[in-house]
Amino acid sequence: MSDQPFNVLFLCTGNSARSILAEGIMNRAGLGRFHAYSAGSRPTGRVNPFALDLLARMNHPTARLRSKPWEEFSHATNPQAPDLDFVFTVCDNAAGEVCPIWPGQPMSAHWGLPDPAAVEGSDTAKALAFAETYRMLTNRIDLFINLPFQTLSKLSLQERLDGIGQTRDAPARTDG
User: Fold this and answer.
1) 8, 9, 11, 12: which one is catalytic?
2) Rounded to an integer, what distance in angstroms lies between the CA atom of residue 124 and that of residue 115?
3) Which of 99, 131, 143, 145 is catalytic?
4) Contact between residue 137 and residue 22 where contact means Cβ atoms under 8 Å apart
């Protein structure tokens, strides 16, 4: 694999919550070794305010985050799209859709998570759902960025990527 930063695209249907959180987490945790993007098959056109609030409270830059269509990352519709190294779907709907052909022949995996934007109830319940999604994404991204990329074959790397998506994220501890 290259010494260049890896380009990573996180996909979800609406590109308003999970994929946005993943983009923010990866861009900070990747320490310049990874450049993250996010997009949706049917973007809502706005980032969920709970996602923006949580990322801001966790000291992630949020000014450039926006809900956008995945066509922005296809050379067929955007010749300036970055070549992608990895594409991860973070919702089951996006995983089942026919995706564009991505530039760069990226490796892909499904890292499905519950949708915090679908939680109904109080603002506290919604904020807790977003915090739990943030925690699960952080765990998966930490596993990913710490993989020994230089020593893994493509097949071994694909197995690891798929395994990260199957990670059973333990519930957050409440006992201190």
Assistant:
1) 12
2) 16
3) 99
4) yes
109 is catalytic: no
Does residue 138 carry a catalytic annotation? no
User: Tokens at residue 168, please?
Assistant: 């059973």
Told to judge if 175 belongs to the known catalytic residues of this protein, a careful annotator would answer no
Structural domains for the chain: 6-165 (3.40.50.2300)
Query: What does the pLDDT profile of the chain (176 residues) look like in tens digits?
Result: 557 899 999 999 999 999 999 999 999 999 999 999 999 999 999 999 999 999 999 999 999 999 999 999 988 888 899 999 999 999 876 545 566 667 678 999 999 999 999 999 999 999 999 999 999 999 999 999 999 999 999 999 999 999 999 877 644 433 33
Alpha carbons 113 and 92: distance in angstroms, whole number: 8
